[in-house]
Design brief:
Length: 120
């Protein structure tokens, strides 16, 4: 695969993750009813929803900066692992955790691209 193809793949995956995490973070920070219900379902306090919202919102934007991509991907990956664990802990069916698992796979792919130094 050429360098240009890797760059395109990098920007498509980054763009997707930036949109996903900034929207998800904004929904938590604005106390969207969907998020309020989800965090109550998991038994988490309200402050935790806001903390995750800040991490997601800031982490989403951090993915745009090459120097911050790896630490942001690692932090967001931990959030996603926590989301999967939360679903499993409360007995949700595995498909409920699928969005987090797919996002985790995309972040892992981005991290792998950048660890190898392929995208510019």
């Amino acid at each position: 695969m050429s360098k240009t193809s890797f760059q395109r793949l990098d920007w498509v995956l980054r763009g997707l993750m930036v949109v996903l995490f900034t929207i998800a973070g904004a929904m938590k920070l604005t106390a969207h009813p969907f998020e309020l219900h989800g965090f109550a379902h998991f038994g988490y306090p309200l402050w935790f929803m806001y903390a995750i919202g800040i991490i997601e919102f800031a982490g989403g934007f951090a993915l745009l900066h090459r120097r911050l991509l790896l630490p942001a991907a690692a932090l967001l990956g931990l959030v996603l692992v926590g989301a999967v664990a939360s679903h499993l802990r409360v007995g949700d069916p595995l498909p409920m955790a699928l969005p987090a698992l797919v996002s985790l796979a995309i972040l892992a792919g981005l991290a792998a691209l950048h660890r190898r130094g392929r995208p510019a």
